[in-house]
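User: My instructor asked us to take a sequence, write out its structure as tokens, and then describe one feature of it. I'm not sure where to start. Here is the sequence I was given:
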Amino acid sequence: MSGADLPIVLLHALPLDSSMWDEPARALRACGHRVLPIDQCGFGRTPLPVDAAPSLDLLADELARELDRRGLDSAVVAGCSMGGYAAMSFLRRHPHRVRALGLFASRGTADTPEGAAARLRFADLISDDSLRARIVADTTSSLLGATTRAQQPGLLARVTALAQAADPQSVAWAQRAIAAREASLSALSTADVPAVVVQGEEDELVTVDEARATAAALAGGRLVTLPGVGHLAPLEAPGKTAEILVWLLAAGHTSCPDGAKAC
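Assistant: Let's start with the prediction itself. The structure tokens for your sequence are:
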């Protein structure tokens, strides 16, 4: 498989869809890379499964089926926030299919009891038609760093609009799935793949210390911190995100036997 043929899967954050990766994806395609931005269950063009219990394992197994449909044995997998948690679940359940791993704004630990309870409260409230608009408006700004909010007001408006448009049932389902997730540090410690953990220095949801612990669990991991960036690096710093993903693709390719150079 040539460097350009090695696919990279991009998994989005909650409550967005695969369009959050549009700018980095364009840059990667300009280098000739095969890019697969995925709408996870309940978002974008992918419906929420009927009567399915909230679980990140379902997202992981659906990604495996999507790779099967495309005739792909393996891929570089990168995810942001919820997408990172889904990527870690995929690594646990399908380790042989991960050629390299990128985790943006994602912690390797499970939620604390307090954190899980807060997610469950949010899931209940977002389902209330009378409260939804206010809850989205009150919480969306925390997805972006203070620098981004000050310098890119149009991006805050875009993210808020996407959050308002998200199906509340899907958002609630995803929050419950994330709250129920298991810790991934053990799975990360046994992963023999190149990996990068990317953390915005202005992230208000995941701390730099949490990102550092996640990177330390990965034998082949490195930590990249981005100044002036919050929780959504693919939107806040798309150029830097693309550079990181190009590095990850190259690392994923050179880690396999045929070792041709990536773009």
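For the description part of your assignment, you could build on this observation: The mean pLDDT is 93. Try explaining in your own words what that tells you about the chain.
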